[in-house]
Design a protein that fits this description.
The chain has about 110 residues and is an alpha+beta fold. It has 4 helices and 3 strands. Strands 1-3-2 form a 3-stranded mixed β-sheet, covered by helices on one side.
Length: about 110
Amino acid sequence: MTGIINIDDVIGLYEDNVKIRENNKKQTWKYDSRRKGIYYSDVNRVILYTKNIRSKQDYDNTIMHELYHAHDLRVNEQVTEELAIYTNKVYPEVIEFVKELYQLEYLGDENERS
């Protein structure tokens, strides 16, 4: 099992050229109509589907969830989600550092977006 991602890990991911991009289109998938994010290991990129994200907490958890995938692809979805939520709750400075480093900001739910 992977450990908790800390600020040094985030710096390592950034230096390894992991990118985070937002896509403001509603994304649907065959088995998951409300996908919020995805990590593409072949191009080292996280895509956040902001139209599917419903709150600041959801946004933060989605970012951290996808960074856990970037950090260790062997971790399953349930464990990844639990680690993301735990990290954001117990170590909020990590997600704040991520958002500052990647210049990310939650702009509201899909009803507030144009």
